[in-house]
Structure formats: structure tokens, C-alpha cells
Design brief:
By secondary structure, this protein is α+β, with helices and mostly antiparallel strands. The protein folds into two domains: about 180 residues, Alpha-Beta Plaits (2-Layer Sandwich), CATH 3.30.70; about 60 residues, no CATH class. Strands 2-3-1-4 form a four-stranded antiparallel sheet, with helices on one face. Strand 2 and strand 3 form a beta hairpin. Helix 12 packs across helix 13.
Amino acid sequence: MGRKPRVEFKGAIYHVIKRGNNRDYIFDQRKDKESLLRYIKYAKEDGGFNLMGYVIMDNHYHMIIQTQEKPLNKIMLTINNRYSKDYNKRHNRSDHVFGGRYKGILVLDDKYLFSLLRYIHHNPVRAKICKKIAQYKWSSDHYYRKNINGLVSVDKILNMFSDDRRMALEEYVRFMDGDEPMVSKKAYDEFEAVNIIGTLEDEEPVLNLEYEDNTLDGILRRAVSNEEDFERIKAGSRQRSLKEYKVRYVKIAAEQGYTFKEIGANIGVSGEAVNKIIQ
């Protein structure tokens, strides 16, 4: 059975996971983690993407990436190839460093984004490396707690907590240090089935999620920023400010198997007009 087509568009947010070959510990030394961060920074400066979160464990890493100029596959190629060459050189070896392709899951919902950030920051706690996530050096948590915009872009998520930055930081800490949601393997597998970008040889349970409403109206609501924009698009508005939302809606709906005619009928335009939207 062939892989599903990739879902990639400018501004999309992805949860990316990459493991060492055969679960090897390819980040167990300080220099290894520093090297990966160096190449993430290089790829970020070269490809123009927002890094919204990360954690580096001893045998794998997680990132939350919002693409800009380059597609996700090119970003990951830069990071993983450069790290692999550097790792083999430093350790005097020539074997495969990573196992399989990266796993990339399209993030379509703010609630999922919040839970995802907490999930990846909790990795070292679950692994019993530390008791509190703030104690772990190799994650993006300290960027958020200290309100630092640098390698990590913290504004989008903190602003979702509150427009008042002091209050946002307090809410962030309360959210991160609160009880973690239960993990459900079945829930993750079902979510992954419609959102997978890359594949690995094994599966990793992530979150017990409430799944997306994949009706055309449900997809449109996820694509827009508020209910007012939803109503405008449904009413056939041609305001230029709505174009980005329409493109996002069309691409997600097409990936879910809807025809251009069906997608267009839901917002009062023809199938040909839908085709032009994504062109």
C-alpha cells in the first residue's frame, strides 16, 4: 500500500518526530545535543521557518515547526543530513544515524497545539530523567518560562494564553506544571491515519485527542481565525484578507478526499474557482 500524499502548505504547523537508527542513543552526549541545535538553527536561518517547540532525548527528538519559505521535507533534509555527517565524523563511524523517514503530523487545532507542546516538554519527566520539566535543559520550555524569542518563537502560543504577557507566562507555567493528559494509543493511531506526513518503523502514542470534525464546515472552521470569517466565506465574500483561509480550507478538504465541486459548493463557488484558489 502506497504512502498517502503529503499535506504541505506555507504557514502549516507540524509535529515532527525523528529517531536514531534501531533506537540508538545518538544524542546521549552534550555535544550531540548541541550539534543538533546548531543545525536546527542553521536550517531555520536558511529556510525561514518558526520553531515553536522542541525536546531532544537521548535517542529521538520532537519539534513543532511552522513552515514559511521552504517545505517541510527540505527543512528536515537539511537538519538530518548535516547532523548525520557531523555525528559520524565526530564518532569516527559511517553507519546510518537515523532510522527510516521522519514522522510529521499536521497540526490543525489550537487545542491540539497546546497539548502537543506540553506533551513534548513532559518527555524527560516521563523518562524519569528529571522530576519537573523546568529542570531539563534540552527542551524549549526555558524559552517560554523566560519569555525569550530566539531559536524558539514563543509569541504565538503565549499570545494564545493572554495578550498580557505577564499573565500569559503565569498561565503557561500553570498549564505546563499541571496534570498531563492521559495517553491513548488507539486515539493517536486514528488521528495519525489522516494527518501523517512521513513514516517510521514503529508507533509512538502521543495524546488522547478529540478528533477533528472532518465535514466541510468543520474543516472550514479550523482553517479560519474566527466565526465571523467563517460566515463571510460561506456567504461568498471575495475580500483579499480571506484568501489565505480559503487556500488552507481547500487543501485540507482535498486531502480528506472531497472533490473540487464539493469543496466549492460548500462556499458558493464552482469547482473551477476552487482549482484557481490553489493555483
